[in-house]
C-alpha cells in the first residue's frame, strides 16, 4: 500500500509538470474511488498538481475539503497563490494558518510569504516574518535570507536589504545578484558596480543585471560592460545581446549595432522574436529603416510566430514618420492570423493621429472596442489623444471619463487637444484636476497651459504657472521657457519676457522668433531688428515666421523701407519663399504711403494668387488717398474672386461711400441684398 501511494503521488506530480490535465483528473478520480482522497500525502500532491495547472480554485477546493492538513499543505497553497500573481490571497491564507494554530511555519513557508510581501508591498508583514526568522534561528539559511533581501529590494528598502545581506555568512551568487539588481532598478549604478566588483565570481546573471541597469538609465556604459563580459569568456546570451542592441538604439550607434547583429547570428539567436525585435528597434532608431525592413522580411518564420516582431516594425515606421508604410503593415497584420494586442492598437491609433484621419481612427476605435482594449490605460489614453487631436473634444472628454486609471498621458492628450481647439476653460479645469490628483504635470502640459494664459492674456494665471515652473525646475527647459516668454509678451509684459529669454540656456529659431514677434507686437521695432541680427550672428537661420514677425512689426510702425529690405533679404539671402501674409504686410504699407503703382507691380510679381485680405487692404488705402480709378479695378477682382463673401460687399460699400461713388454704391448694395448679406460696419443710413 505504501508503494502504491508513492506511485500515485509520483503520477500526480508528473501530470502537473507535463500539463497532462485529463490524465491528472483520471488519477484523482481513482484516488477518490479508492477512498484515499483524505490521505494528507496524496491530497497534498493533488493540490500541487492543480497549482501546476494554475487552477487555484480547484486546488483550494481540495484544500478546504481536507479533514487534516500539515505544513506542506499550507505552504503549497501559499506558494501557488504567490506564483499565480495573487500575493494578497497568499498572505490571507498565511494569516489564516497562524490564526488556526494548526501548524507552525517553516523556512519554506516563510520564503513563500516573503515573496508575496515583496510583490504586494506589505513591508510590515515582511518585517514581522523577518523577526520570526531571527527568533527561530533560521538566519543561517541562505535561501531564506535571499527571500528577505529580495523582499526589501522589491519594496525599495535598499538600506535594510544591504543589512540583511551582510547577515548572510556565505552569500551565494543569487544573494549577490538580488542586491545588485536592487541597486540597478533604483538607478544607483555606481553602488551596483561597486557591489559587482566585490562579488567573488560574477556570473552571467550578474553581468546582465548591470548591462540592463545601464540600458534603463540610457547610459552607454551598458556597451562597455557588454564588451567586458565577452572578454571574460562569458557567452552573450539572448538577454545580453538585445540589451546591447537597445543601448545602440538610444545612442544612435549603428556600427556597433551591426557588430552585435553578427553576434546574434553567430549565437543562433536569429530566430528569437526577442532578438529580432531588438534588431528592428535598433536599426529603426538609428535611422536605417531599410536594414530594419530587411531583418523583418528575412525572418519570415519568426515574424509569423510573434506579433511582437510586427509591432517593432510598426514602431519603426512610426519613429521614422513613414505613416503610409505603417498603415500598409497594419493592414498586413489585420489580414494575417495574428491577434492585435495593446501595442499594435496603440500603433494603429498613432497612425491615425499622424495622418489626422478621423475616419480611419473611428474604424480603429471600433477594432479597439471589439478587442476589449478600450479601457486599457495605454490604448484608452491614445484614443483620447486621437479624438482631441482632430477637434472632437466632446467624445474625447467622454472617453477620458470612462478610463479607470487616468494617467498623465490621458491628461496631456486631452489638454493639448483643448488648447488646440480653443477650449481654454476646459483645459484649465483639467489642469486643476490633474494637480488635485497629485499627478506630476510635465513640461509639455505646463507649456500648453501657458498657451491658454497667452490666448486669454491672463497674466495672473501665467505668473502662478511661472511659479510652478520654478518649483519643478522647468524654467530652464526650452519648451517651457519659450512658452513663458510668449505668455509675458502677449500679456503686455515684454520686459519680463526679455529677462526670461536672455536667461535661456538653449535658444532655437522658435524661441528667437517668439521674442522678435513680441517686440513687434509691443511696438518696439528697433529691438525686434536688433534681436534678429543677434540671432543671425550666432548662426541660427531664420524661418518664414521670423520674417513675418519683422514685417508685421514694420507694418504696425509704418516702416516701409525696412519692410522692402526685409522682404528682399528673405528671398535673396535665405532662399525663403514669402507667403501671402508676407506680401500683405508690404502691400499694406505701400497702400498707406499712396504708392499704388508699386503695390500693383508687387501683386503682379507674386507667385501666388492675391487673397481677399491683400485686395481689401489696398481698397482701404484707395479710400484714404481718394484713388477712385484703382477702386474700380479692385472691385472687379474682389467680386470675381469672392462673389459669395458678404464682407467683400461691406468693404466695397465703405470705399464707395468714402469716395462719394453713389451709383456704384447703389449697385453693390443691391447685389448684397440679393446675396442676403448683412452690411455690418456701415456708419450712415440711406
TrEMBL record:
Organism per entry: Arabidopsis suecica (Swedish thale-cress)
GO terms assigned for molecular function: RNA binding
Entry protein name: Pentatricopeptide repeat
Domain of life: Eukaryota
Keyword list, A-Z: Repeat
Keyword match Lipid metabolism: no
PPR repeat boundaries on the chain: 70-104, 172-206, 407-441, 508-542
Pfam families: PPR, PPR_1, PPR_2
The UniProt record lists the keyword Repeat: yes
Biological processes per GO annotation: RNA modification
InterPro entries linked to this entry: PPR_At4g14850-like_plant, PPR_rpt
Alphabetical list of PANTHER family matching this protein: PENTATRICOPEPTIDE REPEAT-CONTAINING PROTEIN, TETRATRICOPEPTIDE-LIKE HELICAL DOMAIN-CONTAINING PROTEIN-RELATED
PROSITE patterns in UniProt: PPR
Amino acid at each position: 500500500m505504501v508503494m502504491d501511494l508513492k506511485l500515485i503521488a509520483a503520477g500526480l506530480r508528473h501530470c502537473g509538470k507535463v500539463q497532462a490535465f485529463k490524465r491528472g483528473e483520471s488519477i484523482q478520480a481513482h484516488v477518490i474511488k479508492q477512498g484515499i482522497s483524505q490521505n494528507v500525502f496524496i491530497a497534498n500532491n493533488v493540490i500541487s498538481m492543480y497549482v501546476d495547472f494554475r487552477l487555484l480554485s480547484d486546488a483550494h477546493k481540495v484544500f478546504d475539503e481536507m479533514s487534516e492538513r500539515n505544513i506542506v499543505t499550507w505552504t503549497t497553497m501559499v506558494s501557488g497563490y504567490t506564483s499565480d500573481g495573487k500575493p494578497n490571497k497568499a498572505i490571507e491564507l498565511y494569516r489564516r494558518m497562524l490564526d488556526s494554530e494548526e501548524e507552525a511555519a517553516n523556512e519554506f513557508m516563510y520564503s513563500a510569504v516573503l515573496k508575496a510581501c515583496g510583490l504586494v508591498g506589505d513591508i510590515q508583514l515582511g518585517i514581522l516574518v523577518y523577526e520570526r526568522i531571527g527568533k527561530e534561528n533560521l538566519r543561517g539559511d541562505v535561501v531564506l535570507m535571499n527571500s528577505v533581501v529580495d523582499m526589501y529590494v522589491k519594496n525599495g528598502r535598499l538600506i535594510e536589504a544591504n543589512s540583511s545581506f551582510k547577515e548572510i555568512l556565505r552569500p551565494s551568487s543569487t544573494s549577490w545578484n538580488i542586491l545588485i539588481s536592487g541597486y540597478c532598478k533604483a538607478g544607483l549604478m555606481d553602488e551596483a558596480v561597486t557591489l559587482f566588483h566585490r562579488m567573488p565570481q560574477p556570473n552571467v546573471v550578474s553581468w546582465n543585471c548591470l548591462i540592463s541597469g545601464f540600458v534603463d538609465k540610457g547610459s552607454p556604459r551598458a556597451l562597455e560592460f557588454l564588451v567586458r563580459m565577452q572578454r571574460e569568456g562569458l557567452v552573450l546570451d539572448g538577454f545580453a545581446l538585445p540589451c546591447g542592441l537597445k543601448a545602440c538604439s538610444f545612442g544612435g550607434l549603428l556600427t556597433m549595432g551591426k557588430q552585435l547583429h553578427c553576434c546574434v547570428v553567430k549565437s543562433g539567436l536569429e530566430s528569437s522574436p526577442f532578438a529580432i525585435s531588438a534588431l528592428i528597434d535598433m536599426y529603426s532608431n538609428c535611422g536605417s529603416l531599410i536594414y530594419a525592413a530587411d531583418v523583418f522580411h528575412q525572418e519570415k518564420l519568426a515574424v509569423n510566430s510573434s506579433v511582437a516582431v510586427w509591432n517593432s516594425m510598426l514602431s519603426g515606421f512610426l519613429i521614422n514618420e513613414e505613416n503610409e508604410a505603417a498603415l500598409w503593415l497594419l493592414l498586413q497584420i489585420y489580414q494575417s492570423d495574428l491577434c492585435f494586442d495593446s501595442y499594435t492598437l496603440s500603433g494603429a491609433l498613432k497612425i491615425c493621429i499622424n495622418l489626422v484621419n478621423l475616419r480611419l481612427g473611428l474604424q480603429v476605435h471600433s477594432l479597439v472596442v471589439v478587442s476589449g482594449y478600450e479601457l486599457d490605460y495605454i490604448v484608452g489614453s491614445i484614443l483620447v489623444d486621437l479624438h482631441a487631436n482632430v477637434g472632437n473634444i466632446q467624445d474625447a472628454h467622454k472617453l477620458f471619463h470612462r478610463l479607470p486609471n487616468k494617467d498623465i498621458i490621458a491628461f496631456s492628450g486631452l489638454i493639448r487637444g483643448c488648447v488646440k481647439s480653443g477650449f481654454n476653460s476646459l483645459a484649465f479645469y483639467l489642469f486643476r484636476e490633474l494637480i488635485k490628483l497629485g499627478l506630476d504635470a510635465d513640461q509639455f502640459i505646463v507649456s500648453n497651459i501657458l498657451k491658454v494664459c497667452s490666448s486669454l492674456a491672463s497674466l495672473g494665471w501665467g505668473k502662478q504657472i511661472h511659479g510652478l515652473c520654478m518649483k519643478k525646475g522647468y524654467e530652464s527647459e526650452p519648451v517651457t521657457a519659450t512658452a513663458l516668454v510668449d505668455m509675458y509678451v502677449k500679456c503686455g509684459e515684454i520686459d519680463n519676457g526679455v529677462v526670461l529669454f536672455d536667461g535661456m540656456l538653449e535658444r532655437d529659431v522658435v524661441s528667437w522668433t517668439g521674442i522678435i514677434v513680441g517686440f513687434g507686437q509691443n511696438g518696439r521695432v528697433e529691438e525686434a531688428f536688433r534681436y534678429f541680427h543677434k540671432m543671425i550672428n550666432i548662426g541660427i537661420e531664420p524661418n518664414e515666421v521670423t520674417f513675418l514677425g519683422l514685417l508685421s512689426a514694420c507694418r504696425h510702425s509704418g516702416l516701409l523701407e525696412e519692410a522692402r529690405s526685409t522682404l528682399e533679404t528673405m528671398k535673396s539671402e535665405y532662399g525663403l519663399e514669402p507667403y501671402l501674409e508676407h506680401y500683405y504686410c508690404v502691400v499694406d504699407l505701400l497702400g498707406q504711403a499712396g504708392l499704388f503703382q508699386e503695390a500693383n507691380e508687387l501683386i503682379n510679381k507674386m507667385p501666388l494668387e492675391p487673397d481677399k485680405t491683400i485686395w481689401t487692404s489696398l481698397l482701404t488705402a484707395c479710400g484714404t488717398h481718394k484713388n477712385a480709378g484703382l477702386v474700380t479695378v479692385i472691385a472687379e477682382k474682389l467680386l470675381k474672386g469672392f462673389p459669395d463673401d458678404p464682407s467683400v460687399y461691406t468693404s466695397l460699400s465703405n470705399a464707395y461711400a468714402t469716395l462719394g461713388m453713389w451709383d456704384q454704391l447703389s449697385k453693390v448694395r443691391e447685389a448684397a441684398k440679393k446675396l442676403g448679406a448683412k452690411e455690418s460696419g456701415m456708419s450712415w443710413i440711406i
